[in-house]
Amino acid sequence: MTLVVMSPLEDTAGQKILDLPIKDNWTISQVAKLIADRTGLKKASMIMAKGKMGERVPESAKMDDSKLVVDYGFNDGDEIAFMYLGDLEVDLAAFMKSRK
Question: Residue 76: which domain range?
Fold first, then answer.
């Protein structure tokens, strides 16, 4: 299964930054770790959320790290989103520069 990560930055919002190849038996925590490993973001600063990147999501959109991605209804090609509590621009800068 492949999930899509869209840019969380304002100036590139709506642009795909990453295809995330995962297994359907992965937990939300495993997906967050892969996003962190691939982008340089800090997993501890990520709150995985059901919604679309760049849209305001309610607190109830927070996903349980121990649940499987399929428990939330994700399918191949779906977008996965997160809230980031760290310095997004600084932490993502090297990854975004490498994409150019």
Answer: 2-98
